[in-house]
Every structure is written in C-alpha cells, then in structure tokens.
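ESCALATION

Customer reports they have been waiting on this structure for their group meeting. Please prioritize. Original submission:
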Amino acid sequence: MRFLEGVKIALASLRAHKLRSFLTLLGVIFGVMTVVAVAAVIEGFFRYVDRTVTADLGANTVLLDKFGMITSFEDFINASRRNKDITLEDAEFLRERMTLAQSIGVQGFSSAEVRSPREKMTNVNIKGNTPNMVSIDSTQPEFGRYVSETDDEHRRNVALIGSEIADKLFNSREVVGREIKIDGLPFEVIGVAKEQGSFFGQSRDDFVIIPLSTYQKIFGTRQSLTISVRGYDNVRLEDVQDQARLLMRARHKLGYNDKDTFGVLTSDTINNFIQAIFGIVAAVALGVVSISLVVGGIVIMNIMLVTVTERTREIGIRKSLGARRKDILAQFLVESTTLSLVGGLIGLGIAYGISQLLVRFTPIPAELPLWAAALAIGVSSGVGLVFGIYPAWKAAKLDPIVALRSE
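Update from on-call: job pushed to the front of the queue and completed.
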C-alpha cells in the first residue's frame, strides 16, 4: 500500500468523524503544546541569561574579586576567611605584566540614598568606576558623558546616572548639569546611561556611576574592589583567564598546591553554573509534562482499536482482493501516525502562540528553538507509530472469511 494513499484515508477519516477526531487528538495536542511551551521558556531563559550576563560582564572579560562563584553559605564563610581583599595595587600589578589584556578596569560597589530637590530613592546601587570601564562593560551614556580621567584624578563629585534614576528623580532624561545628593553630598549629573531593561523583573537601570577615587573618598579605601580584565578580540577568553589567575597567584605568593585566595568569574562560568542548576529542573519539568503525550498515545491506540472493529468488513474485502498482511499493517500504522502528527502540528502552533504572548505581555523570556519544533513533530509521529502497532497488528491478522461475514 502506498504511503500517500494511507495519509489520504487517515485525513478522510478525520473529516468524517470531526468530534471524535478532535477528542482523540486532544491528548496529543495538549502534550505537544505543554512540552514545546516549556522547552521555549527554558530555551528563552538560557539565551536571555547568556545575553544579559555577557553584556553586564563585558565581551571577552574576566572578573577578579574577593569571592568568585559562591554556591553555598559555607563557601561564603570560607572565602571570607581565606581570601584577600582586591586592591588598586593588584590592578596596577596586572596592568604592568599582562600581555593579553586590552584594558583593565576597577570597580567598587555600595548602596546609598540618592536625592533630587523633590524626590529621593533608597538603596540605590553606587558604582565607583575607573574611566576605562566605559570600554569594558555595557553601560554607555545616552546623554552627556562617562566619568573621565580628569574626574578621577581630581576626585570630582560627578555622576553618570541610570535611566530609572533620571525618570524617578527628575521625570526626564535630559538632566545633564542638574544636581543630585548621594548620602547628602552634592554631585553634578554629567550623563544619563542608555536604558538596559530588566532582568526577570529586576531593573538594571537603578545605578549611579561616580569616579573610583571619589567613591573611595566617600566609602573608604578598605573595601574590596573588582577588577575587570578585557582581553584582545583575537585572544581566547580561557587564555586571558589563565594569565590573570597565574599573575594573581604570584602576587599573593601562593604555592602550587595552595587554593586561590581570590575569585575568578567569566560569563561562561556564570552561564555554566546556571545551566547546571536549571538544567536539572528543565529535565524534570519536561519529563513530567511528557506524561501527557503517553496519555495521548493511549487514547490514539484505543480509537484505532475501535476503528479496526468498525472497518472489519473493509479489511476483509481488501484481503480478498489481494491485500497482504503487511499492506493492512502499513495502512493502519500510517493512519495512526498521521492522526498523531496532525495533533502534534496543532499543538506546535498553539505553543508558538503561547510563547509570543509570554514575550509580549510578561517578563518571561520565551524563544521557540528549531530543535523543539523538530522534536514535537518527531515525538508526535513516534507516539502515533508506537501506539498504533497493536491495532495495526490486530487488523492485519484478521481472517478475511470471518471479516467478510462481519456486519
């Protein structure tokens, strides 16, 4: 029996029994829809984290700080006791010796109250940056300028503010030259940064950047800093990381078997950690929602058994006209596979619509990957094939004489 003929018969059966076909396909539709929708959210989450982390850390950039990747409270305690504070002297040591670094910047992080003449904000992120951080991280001015070498050299009270700070304090973004107060100290606004959006509902635009020297004048020089090492574009990130680590170990006079007394972070480190954690969650989630596909397959097997009973006489006629067992087997396998595939395509279309609605109306990232679409089609076809084997086998082994006598 030709494949296309079997597909035509299956589609004709769908049209002839619309309600029964819909109820039969409902399990497969729901199963494929949930699996693909979950896959789209997981894929969107991973891609979103990758883009955001890479943008925040900077391309081809290695971060050196006191703690590194902390995965438990015990790690935090151990790092607090063992690791040394990162200082400006460490950054200067790296600048003099690194051959793979295009730029080495330094940052300090704190929080403070920020006021305008009419409004105030509390717990605002205050960043003390060296001027060359403009070429390392993703923060760029939309209005005005970044902090300069002169600002840093003279410890000027100037600030580049995030777009959310400008909106909330001044209800405008063209505020260059206006004054804000950080913990009561006056600062001139020299720029407003381009909007960066949010990260799972958390704003990335509620910050104030001031010169590092000014930051240390206000918050003290004993705080541990963060060093950002950006490698040359033609140099592998792993090589930049290895050179920075070796130099810092030499700086801290560590032996071959001694653990690092500083932390090293890259976008790959963070992404791999997040994917390792949420990859387990994703596997469990996909496994749970896949159960609905099994239920859909059982429904298809049940309806195909009913179909075999209804079409017993037809099977007898086909056999009496020369149809072989394998022809009958192929006919019903093609029908069950086609039935399931139609349900899979409908479920895929619904899942795509859901992912678009999530992106448009919620902060949840969702991207339908090509592999998920291919998997949906393949799995739905496989479900129809697997669960159609028994009904097809039952139809194929019918005795033609008995089948012709059936009413």
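Sent to customer with the following note: Residues 7 and 246 are 65 Å apart (CA to CA).
Escalation resolved.
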